[in-house]
Amino acid sequence: MGYPWQRKAAAPILFLWGSVAFCHRLFHFNFLEFIGCAFSVSVSFFFIYHVALFIYRNWVGVWLGHNADIKTHGPWAVITGCTSGIGRAYADSLAKRGLNLVLMSRSKEKLVELQSELREQFPSVQTKIIIVDFTKGPEIYGDIEKELQGLEIGMLVNNVGICYQFPEYFMDLPDRNQFCTDILNCNILSVTMMTSIVLPGMLERGKGVVINISSLSGIMDTPFMTLYAATKAFVDKFTQDLELEYREQGIIFQVLIPGYVVSNMSKVKTSNFFVPSAEDFVEKALSCLGLQSRTCAWLSHQILHACIRIGQFFRRDVAGEVMHIDIMISRKN
């Protein structure tokens, strides 16, 4: 159970004014010196607090075992978009931890292949496949709800999503109207409806985990991928507010905000410090579950996130100008 925000705010406020009053009494500051001291102490405290919190959430809390034990939330996990990339990595990681899996994707062949591989590697893990095309509309969710009835679902991973094939002006998108419908259904409606289906059972049991996959593109200027970035901004906001609504009822919400990860969507084939493999990214994300409700998980992505936040204090159109120049050059070539 969390403390009310007033109690959380009291400690740093008392520390700040206590430090300033002590310095004032010790050094006999005048008014301007007092203001300068107060500002310096507050900035220092802010910096130290966030560095300490960052270290705790990423390493110390994990080492101390303060992160979530996913097996205690329920025996079944539901993963959408699970046949490749981050979704596939979640299937492998959760099966390794002993969770039964509901695997959801539109390709029957890939689902059957994945199910066969998981059964071979983890014989004790039960698997269930649901063939579904998330670019379709609300009509698909009645059948999904029926398929999930009777399962004690402890975790939902909303991973499914589609992206642009290449950066493009909104009005120049190929088959624009159909693409708009498809991406909104897949990236927004799926997250909303799957959460709506699974969350009531979690609330009834007083425990559960919902993980939604957003993107760094959702928090920064991303012209020429406007609609994709907007859908990821929705996922980010949706998850943050659900976390505030249901944290006191035992439900863990986590939104992941990755940069590039090795996957079919990113079209990156080789991992490095800046672009992790899907497996490494998912292991890191699971390790901080319960410690970070909104995270980039991977260290280089967290650094990039911080740089983006700092950069947003300056000109907002810098990213747009850079991408505009880049796309114009590519068109000329």
Question: What do these coordinates show?
Answer:
The chain has 2 domains: about 5-55; about 75-310, 3-Layer(aba) Sandwich (Rossmann fold). The chain has 10 helices and 7 strands. It has a 7-stranded parallel sheet, sandwiched between helices. Helix 3 (about 85-95) links the parallel strand 1 (about 75-80) and strand 2. By secondary structure, the chain is an alpha/beta fold. It is about 55% helix and about 10% strand.
Which secondary structure elements does this structure contain, and how are they paired or packed?
Blueprint: H1 5-27, H2 31-63, E1 76-80, H3 85-96, E2 100-105, H4 108-121, E3 127-131, H5 141-148, E4 153-158, H6 176-205, E5 208-213, H7 226-246, E6 251-256, H8 278-287, E7 294-295, H9 299-311, H10 318-332
Parallel strand pairs: 1-2, 1-4, 2-3, 4-5, 5-6, 6-7
Helix pairs in contact: 1-2, 3-8, 6-7
Transmembrane segments: 31-56
Family: Belongs to the short-chain dehydrogenases/reductases (SDR) family.
GO molecular function: oxidoreductase activity
